[in-house]
Structure formats: C-alpha cells, structure tokens
Design a protein that fits this description.
By secondary structure, the chain is of the alpha+beta class. It is built from 3 helices and 6 strands. Helix 1 runs antiparallel to helix 2.
C-alpha cells in the first residue's frame, strides 16, 4: 500500500508540475505575441492610433510578465516540496485524506483526478490549506461550517 501511496503522490506532484509549466508556457507565448503586435504596429497618418496600439500591446506584455512571475514563484514553491519523506502531520508535500475529500498540500492547482479518485492540490496558504496544516490523523477540522475528520496523512 505504501508504494501505491508514493505513486499517487508522485502523480499528483507531476500534475502540479505540468500545471505550472502550462502557465509558464502560456504567459511566455502571450508575452511574445504582445511584443510581436507592438513591433508590427505601423506608423499611420493617424499617429495617435499607432501610439495607442503600441501602448496597449505594451500593457498586455506587462500583464503577461506578471503572470509569468507568478508561475515562476509557483514552480519555486513546488520545487521546495519533498514528497518522499514520511508525514504524520499535514505539511507541504503531504497527502491529507479526509471524510470530505483528499488534499495534496502543495500549490493551488485545483482538482486532479487519478484513476477515478479526485484530489485537490491546495496551497498551505489557502483557506483550506491553512486549516489542514499541522493536523494529524483522526483530528477533526471545520471549514465553511462543515466538519470532517482526517482519516490518513501520507
């Protein structure tokens, strides 16, 4: 059973890595497209239109640069997690099984389905992650006026 739990954690970690990489790729692609748009704006007789188009492309590039920085922060956060160590308490890298769902304390990557079972990748800084952080098996937790029990921590 321990081997399958480690496989599940490895799969969840890989899914989080893929999520982060997709965000990085999307931001880089959007930045490149915005830069190409700014570069292709041609000076017209209506100079204001040219300046406005370049300014809008510059703003779009800046928005995507911020998204890229956020994705890079997520990747760094994920790289600090050691899923190999055994957990008896919910800390980053732990898989927390509860009567109301399964949570992988890592980054906020949302729902991940593996072999018919749903898991939620949550950041320890998220509201649910903060509630789970530090709990042990058999502890009871209340979140959004719903109580549930920690059944296992892997």
């Amino acid at each position: 059973m321990a081997g399958s739990n480690q496989l599940t954690k490895s799969q969840l970690y890989a899914a989080c890595q893929a999520y982060v990489q997709q965000r990085i790729d999307a931001a880089q692609h959007a930045m490149q497209a915005a830069q190409e748009s700014a570069n292709s704006e041609t000076k017209s007789s209506a100079g204001d239109k040219y300046e406005t188009g370049r300014a809008m492309a510059h703003e779009e590039r800046n928005r995507n640069a911020v998204q890229l920085q956020e994705a890079l922060k997520l990747r760094a956060e994920l790289e600090r997690i050691d899923i190999q160590k055994p957990f008896t308490m919910a800390l980053p890298g732990a898989l927390v099984m509860t009567t109301q769902g399964n949570y992988f304390l890592s980054i906020s990557a949302g729902k991940i389905s593996l072999e018919g079972t749903d898991y939620f990748a949550v950041s320890p800084a998220s509201p649910i992650g903060a509630q789970l952080k530090g709990v042990h098996a058999k502890d009871k937790v209340t979140f959004n006026n719903r109580s549930f029990t920690i059944t296992n921590i892997l």
